[in-house]
Amino acid sequence: MIRRQIKKRTPHFLRDEGFRYKRIPKNWRRPTGYTSKLRMNLKYRPSKVRVGFRGPKTVRGLHASGFEEVMIHTVKELEIINPKKQAVRIGGTVGTKKRLDIAKRAGELDIRVLNMKG
Predict the structure, then answer these.
(1) By CB distance 3.0 to 4.6 Å, which of 9, 41, 67, 104 could disulfide with 87?
(2) For residues 111 and 88, is the Cβ–Cβ distance under 8 A?
(3) How far apart are CA 74 and CA 94, in angstroms?
């Protein structure tokens, strides 16, 4: 919710001259040209991506659901998870059998698993 409020305030960053030509996509690319007016921060040009437009400190680094992501590989690692603040992501090297065990135990402990289907 906090991130959504901040996102409303930040401008939509356009690629330099992206509005002018159809062949130039709208997605952001940093202007690098020596005489680029956008690189020189001239007032009549749109905003440039800068550190001041960062996300809010309270939600920085969190998953979109608002939980802190924790990577796990075994069932035993679930015991140290705080279900109110943290959600788990099962490592890519974990096999199907152990994944099912982790998902079952996470259900018992009421822990959210971010990368389980269904």
Answers:
(1) 67
(2) yes
(3) 8
| Backbone φ, ψ for residue 72 (5° rounding) | -130, 155
Residue 13 and residue 5: Cα distance in Å, rounded?
A: 17
SS3 86: strand
Question: Which two tokens mark 40?
Answer: 């020189």
Burial of 56 by CB count in 10 Å (0-12 exposed, 13-18 middle, 19+ buried)?
A: exposed
Q: Which residue has the tokens 């690629």?
A: 15
- Give pLDDT, residue 96: 93
Q: What is the pLDDT of residue 5?
A: 86
Residues 6 or more apart whose CB falls under 8 angstroms from that of 66 comprise: 59
24 with 11: CB under 8 angstroms?
Answer: no
Predicted confidence (pLDDT) per residue in 16-32, tens digit: 888 889 999 989 999 99
Query: What is the number of H-type helices and E-type strands within the chain?
Result: 2, 2
Residues 86 and 83: their CA atoms lie apart, in Å, by 5
